[in-house]
Amino acid sequence: VQLQASGGGLVQTGDSLRLSCAVSRRNFSTWVIGWFRQAPGKEREFVASISRSRFNTDYADSVKGRFTISRDVANYRVYLQMNSLIPEDTARYYCAAKYTQLVHATTRNYDFWGQGTLVTVSS
Description:
By secondary structure, this protein is an all-beta fold. The protein has strands at residues 3-6, 9-12, 17-23, 31-38, 45-50, 57-59, 67-72, 77-82, 91-99, 112-113, 117-122.
């Protein structure tokens, strides 16, 4: 599977941004897709995950209520809508994929990774 993240940029505190992850079309529906981020000098951390069915999602506590992950089957994309951004959200954001036979499962462990897109939130 190939993953391509895009949509990052420089925004101000309180702004919104939508990241997009383009997933290779082959077997798109068999992958759980997740978003991670890595800030300078910090370890990569889980942000959000969406199941194959789109019905189940999982979020890190730090983004709950502000970020929304969604899955666009028609366009083979997974989005991360980020609202009420704060400087602590500054990081390079990566999308990732894991094959599973479980239609409604989410996960925080992934096998395939795309390149990241940089999000910078100024105060």
